[in-house]
Structures are given as C-alpha cells and as structure tokens.
Amino acid sequence: MWRGPVVQARKNAVNSVKWKVFSIHAKLIAIAAQKWGNPDDNASLAAAIVKAKKEGVPNDNIDRAIKKWTGEDTSGEQILEIVYEWYGPSGIALIVSTITDNKNRTVSNIRHTFSRYGGNLWESWAVSWVFQRKGILFIDPQEHSYNSIEELVFDTDAEDIVQGAWYIKIITNIDSFHTVEEFFTDKSIDIFESKIDYIPDSEVEITDFDTALKFKKMIQAFDEDEDVTLVSSNEIISEELDKKVDAFIEKNTFQT
Questions:
Q1: Which residues pair with 76 in a beta bridge?
Q2: Distance between CA atoms of 74 and 70, rounded to whole angstroms?
Q3: pLDDT at residue 15, rounded to an integer
Q4: What is the share, in percent, of the chain residues with pLDDT greater than 70?
Q5: Is the model's pLDDT at 211 over the cut of 80?
C-alpha cells in the first residue's frame, strides 16, 4: 500500500515541532533582551541563548530575536507572557503558560482547546493556589550517579533531590534557581532540561478511559500550539490506563 500521505504527515509533524521550538526560544530571547541586549552583561539573555543553541536554533534566528529589543529591528510586536488557568473533569487543575506576540490569537486558541475538551478558563489564582512555583533541573543518571549529585546538592540552596527512572531531579525555590543551575554548569555537569514549573500541592487521579483520553488529547493540542511554553497539572493516571490511552491515540494517528 502506498503510504505517501502518512509519511508526509509525519514529516509535517516533525517540522511543526521544530518550528515551535525555534519560535518559543526566539520569544524567550526577546524577553530577556528587553533588560539589555548584550549577553555579556545580561545573565538571563546569555542563559536563553545557550538553551536555544542546545535546541539547535540557528544563529540568525537568535540575532533577529535580540534585535527586536535593541532598536535595530522594530518590526516585531510586543511579546507578552500570559498564564491561563483551568478546571476540568474530576476537578483537575491545569495551568497553561504562554509567550505570545498576538494576545487575541493566543486567548482564542487556548479558549477553544479548553472548551473542546470539557473545561473553562478561570480568573487568575482560581487554580494557581493549588501549585507552588519551583525551579526544576534534570540530570541524566547514566552520566552521573545519584550519590555524587546528592553530595553536591548539599553545597547549594536546592530544596530537594529526587531519583527517577530516567532522571535525577533537583528542585529549587525561584530565587535560587539560576544560582543552582550555574553551580552545576560550572562543575561541567550537563543539565538536559531546566525550567520554572508549577508543582501541585495535591493530586487528582483519573480512572475513567474517556476522561483520560480527553485530557491527554488536550495536552497534545497544547503541545502543538505555537504560543504554549509550559503545561502544569495535578492529574495522576495509572501506568496501565496511560498505556491504553497512548495505544488508542497511536492507533488513530496518521491514518489514511
């Protein structure tokens, strides 16, 4: 059977993800550059550039993003960071963080996704009180042992360290986030992901297949949204149910 449409769909999906990554990093760089356009004198901008290059963002894209805020390129729209909050089925709380140069487009897309999968936007703090904002750093346990990282953590202001199957996770408060990240970077320890995230104080388990499917499809839609940078939620889905939902989504994706 000729699988041309399927192959093209997969290529389009890969290109879409790459384009979103480039777009998000450009916005993050532009926001950091508002303080000062020289990375030598702007630690936030320098960190944003390093992360962008690690994701393969071309130098031309980085330069254009900086120029939008240095007066060399005034064609760009104002870039805003906007957070949306949502309550869904079973009382699931969800926060969607965005960076956008078109507020009307973003709120329309976010509202559409929420309503499509059974939720509504709420006022600020209606959901966020369930979460605490924390800095999160991930280190590969294949490259560094948990014990060696734990010893180093004692020399920082990090709040906690967690061993996972495929990561060592370090949790910090917001004020110490960049300092702790620089501490490990200076020791030549590669951090494969670092971010400011919302950590839930309480969690809600999803036990129904249809609810789990809707929730994961909604997360997928946000992942594909060009303006969404982070999705934080307090749901728990069992490994068995999670596999069933993933298998169903995979089976019904890229069908001719």
A1: none
A2: 8
A3: 46
A4: 84
A5: yes
73 Cβ partners below 8 Å, 6+ apart?
64, 67
Q: What is the DSSP string of 195-221?
A: EEEEEESS-EEE--HHHHHHHHHHHHH
Residues paired with 87 in a beta bridge: 93, 120
Of residues 171 and 120, more confidence is placed in 171
> In the β-sheet with 191-200, what is the strand arrangement from edge to edge?
160-163, 168-172, 131-139, 191-200
Q: Mean pLDDT score of the chain, rounded to an integer?
A: 83
Rounded-to-10 torsion of CA 41, 47, 53, 56:
-150
Q: Render 6-45 in DSSP notation, one character per residue.
A: HHHHHHHHHHHHHHHHHHHHHHHHHHHHTT-S-GGG-HHH
pTM for the predicted model, two decimal places: 0.74
Give 215 or 70, the one with higher predicted confidence. 215
List domains and CATH numbers for the chain.
Answer: 4-67 (1.10.10.200), 80-129+202-251 (3.30.70.980), 130-200 (3.30.70.980)
Distance CA 114, CA 126 (A): 15
